Structure formats: C-alpha cells, structure tokens
Amino acid sequence: MASGLVRIRPAAIRRDRPVIVGVLNVTPDSFSDGGKFTRVDAAVSHAVALRDAGADFVDVGGESTRPGAARIDPAVERKRVLPVLKALIERSIPVSVDTMNASTARAAAEIGVLVVNDVSGGLADPDMLRTVAETGVHYIASHWRAPSDTMDDEAVYKNVVVEVRNALKARIAEMLVWGISPDKIVLDPGLGFAKTADHNWALLKALPKLESIGYPLLIGASRKRFLAPFADDGAPSSERDFATAVVSALAAQAGVWGVRVHDVASTASAFDVWSAWNSGGANA
Ligand code: PMM
Is there a catalytic annotation at residue 224? Predict the structure, then answer.
C-alpha cells in the first residue's frame, strides 16, 4: 500500500499534468453509469480499464448523488463498495471511496483505502471530520448545501464565487480544528451540487480565486447537466465526454490539482495536448 500513498499525495503526484480520478459508481441509479457495475467482477474490469487509460486513482461510490436521489442506508452503501474496494486494493489499483458517511469512510480506511471523497465536505455526517482525522486518510471536501433531493432549491446565491470560497474556507477551519493535517486536504467547488449551469460556469471561470484559498483543487464536471447543451438533444450523458475533456484541459490551464471523470481516455488525451502546448515544442 505504500506506493498507493505516494501516488495520491498531492505534492508527489503533480507531474506534468493534473491528477485524473476515474469514476466508478457501483450504484443501481447513478445518472450516467447507474446499474452497469453492480457486480464486483464488472466493477473490477472497469477499474482496470480506467487505470490503463491513465487514471491515477479510481473513485468508488455506492450512493447516487444525482439530482433528486434519496439518501440510502450506510449499511447498503458499505455492502456495495467494500467488496469492490477490497478487490481493487488486492490488485494494487489506487482507490478513493466516495461517501458522505463516516461509518463507510472508517470501514474503507480499515481495509486500506487512503482517500475519502466526501461531496458534503463533512456537512452530511457530524462524525465525518473526526473519522478523517482519526484514520489519517486524505480528504477531498466539496462545497455542498443540502442532500440531492432538495439541493436544487438551494441553488440561490448573491455571488456564487464569493459564497463558495467563503464556505470552503469555513470547512477548512473546521477540518483543522478536528486535527486533519492540511497536507491531506483537497477542495472541490462541487459543480452541480446546489448549483445551476450559470453557477458552475462562474466557478470554473473563477478557479484561480478558489485556488488562492491555498489548497489543491479537484473539479468534477464530467457528464454533468450543464454540459448537455454541447451534445445533441436527448443524447446519452456519455455524449458529454468531449465537452468534459475540453473542460479538463481548460481546468489544467487554470492550475487545478485534479479532475474527476468517467471517460479517462479523452481527458488523458486532452492533457497530452495541453502538455505539448505548454512545452512549446522539443527544440524551442
Ligand atoms: N460529483 C459526483 C459524485 N462525486 N466527487 C467530487 N469530489 N466532485 C464531484 O463533482 C462529484 C463527486 C456526482 O457525479 P457522478 O454521479 O457522475 O459520480
């Protein structure tokens, strides 16, 4: 597992491009890949494909956070994610667990998971920050206002950039009080979580302002609703991968630490082009 730790440590992983986090939803109902990877063997093969396509780690989630989704029992979530996480760790594939539940985060840490990705930034479960501090995992904390079944009602801001920035700073202050090590924290503006398309674009344009908080930034734009206008009407969400890859390249240019995507190959390719652009050519 030591090599896994090195691979996800922010300072160590930043090579010539941002980190690519591959999405693996082992849920029956996620908006883009729901129901496809509920069997452990199917989930493992998909994770291997994500890794081979260039994912630095694979984010395994067992609870859908698509707009309108109801919360599920953490025990059900654990039953979905733990066997998959275990199988991936056995194959030395670096993983994170995508969970809002402290009990799931702790159970994952106990089997060797080194990164917890919490879209609620510790707001959904009062035990989460203590658990993160006690287990010593890396922690990806998103901006969040409410569970998915009511979050669209909370998409009201006077100035979304200022309010998200201030809210993330407040979360950081709380994480530090709980004793979470600052070098284990990654922030995420939580695109689509209590945010309209305009809010998402405002946040993407203002990435440097969010980076100025002083922590690595992860962006999760992949296949989200705000990218639908760039695909045909009614097209499946996988048709948003091209737009996602463009967002990945632009986010790289804006200095993000990482991107969380479903289609790793297109984002890896976008990063290759971005790197070539920034290299200015071999003989320059
Ligand atoms: N979005 C989803 C799930 N997990 N994690 C982070 N850190 N950032 C995100 O934007 C994010 C996330 C929802 O998308 P999915 O259903 O495609 O996984």
Answer: yes
Q: What is the number of the ligand 1 atom nearest to the C-alpha of 218?
A: 7
Scan for tokens 């290759």, then name that residue.
272
Measuring from each residue's beta carbon to the nearest atom of ligand 1, which residues come in under 6 Å? 23, 25, 30-32, 61, 65-66, 98, 117, 119, 140, 142, 188, 190-191, 218, 220, 223, 260
Q: Could you read off the pLDDT of 244-264 as tens digits, one per residue?
A: 999 999 999 999 999 999 999
Domain contains 13: no
Residues 122 and 226 in one domain: no
Q: What is the pLDDT of residues 74-88, one digit of tens each?
A: 999 999 999 999 999
Domain of 108: which CATH number? Answer: 3.20.20.20
Q: Name the closest-CA residue to atom 9, ligand 1.
A: 220
Active site residue 223: no
Of the chain, the end-to-end C-alpha distance in Å amounts to 40
Structural domain range at position 234: 222-279
Sheet of 95-98: strands edge to edge? 185-188, 138-142, 115-118, 95-98, 57-61, 19-25, 258-261, 218-219
Atom of ligand 1 nearest to the CA of 64: 16
pTM of the model: 0.93
- Give the type of residue at 36: K
140 and 255 together in one domain:
no
